[in-house]
């Protein structure tokens, strides 16, 4: 059975590999925190060792240039999807409090996004990110 909802991440295509992975990890944590129903059950191996649960659905990762990220954010907000953002300034921060304080100083039109994540109805997510290539 196909999921009715979708999790998608868009990372800026000019970031270093470590930055893309870092941004992706931070962004999806917001979806897990806000939507606990997206998380599956604990994993158990054959020796009965327990492991943390993960998302119960696939995550699609796209790449985009800065303008593509800006447009994707705008479309996602217009479609009332849940959106997590990662402005490039956060690479210089060390704590969650610093991150939130930095974002609070930035007007929407000045956000220099390194990435974003969206969650919502499958069709709405697809339309918001239409035309963005999958991360290669």
Automatic annotation (TrEMBL):
Superkingdom, natural source: Bacteria
Gene3D superfamilies linked: Bit1
One Pfam match: DUF2000
InterPro entries on file: DUF2000, Pep_tRNA_hydro_II_dom_sf
Cross-referenced SUPFAM superfamilies: Peptidyl-tRNA hydrolase II (SSF102462)
Entry protein name: DUF2000 family protein
Organism: Actinoalloteichus hymeniacidonis
Lineage of producing organism: Bacteria, Bacillati, Actinomycetota, Actinomycetes, Pseudonocardiales
